[in-house]
């Protein structure tokens, strides 16, 4: 259950990271409210997952999910470059997430 909560927390991290772009420097009320809500949910779920998962593993996986999701959505939504080097680096992050899951 902790791993599922951690994955959901990571997805909310992606949501707030992408949401920051839509807040326009926190000048748009609805995107700002959604972003702040996603931040709170993300950190709360991370905290619950850390009750049973090691702190280093949980935090690294949480940030890894956030990083990978944000990079991919940046490519899709904002037409950021999808170069071989960037995709390779994303692959390394994914490998690290899987490795931490397998060794936890």
Model description:
Helix content is 84%, strand content 0%. The protein is an all-alpha fold and 104 residues long. The chain has one domain (2-103). 24% of the residues are buried. The model has no long low-confidence stretch (mean pLDDT 97). Belongs to the drug/metabolite transporter (DMT) superfamily. Small multidrug resistance (SMR) (TC 2.A.7.1) family. Gdx/SugE subfamily. This is Guanidinium exporter. Keywords: Cell membrane, Membrane, Transmembrane, Transmembrane helix, Transport.
Can I get a quick summary?
The protein is 84% helix and 0% strand. With 104 residues, it is an all-alpha fold.
What structural category do the secondary elements indicate?
mainly alpha
The tally of beta strands, per DSSP, is 0
Largest sheet: none
How many DSSP H or I helices? 4
Shape: flat
Instruction: Give average pLDDT, whole number.
Output: 97
Portion in helices: over 70%
Percent in strands: under 5%
N-to-C SSE string, H for helix and E for strand:
HHHH
**Number of self-contained structural domains:** 1
State the low-pLDDT regions, or none: none
First-last Cα distance: 14 Å
Rg, please?
14 Å
Subcellular location: Cell membrane
Keywords: Cell membrane, Membrane, Transmembrane, Transmembrane helix, Transport
Protein name: Guanidinium exporter
Transmembrane segments: 33-50, 57-78, 84-103
Helix and strand topology:
Blueprint: H1 2-23, H2 29-49, H3 55-78, H4 84-103
Helix pairs in contact: 1-2, 1-3, 3-4
């Amino acid at each position: 259950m902790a791993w599922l909560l951690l994955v959901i927390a990571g997805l909310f991290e992606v949501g707030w990271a992408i949401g920051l772009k839509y807040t326009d420097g926190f000048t748009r009320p609805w995107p700002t409210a959604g972003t702040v809500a996603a931040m709170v949910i993300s950190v709360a779920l991370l905290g619950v997952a850390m009750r049973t998962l090691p702190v280093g593993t949980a935090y690294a996986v949480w940030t890894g999910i956030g990083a990978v999701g944000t990079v991919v959505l940046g490519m899709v939504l904002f037409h950021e470059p999808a170069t071989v080097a960037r995709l390779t680096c994303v692959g390394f992050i994914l490998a690290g997430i899987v490795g931490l899951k397998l060794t936890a």
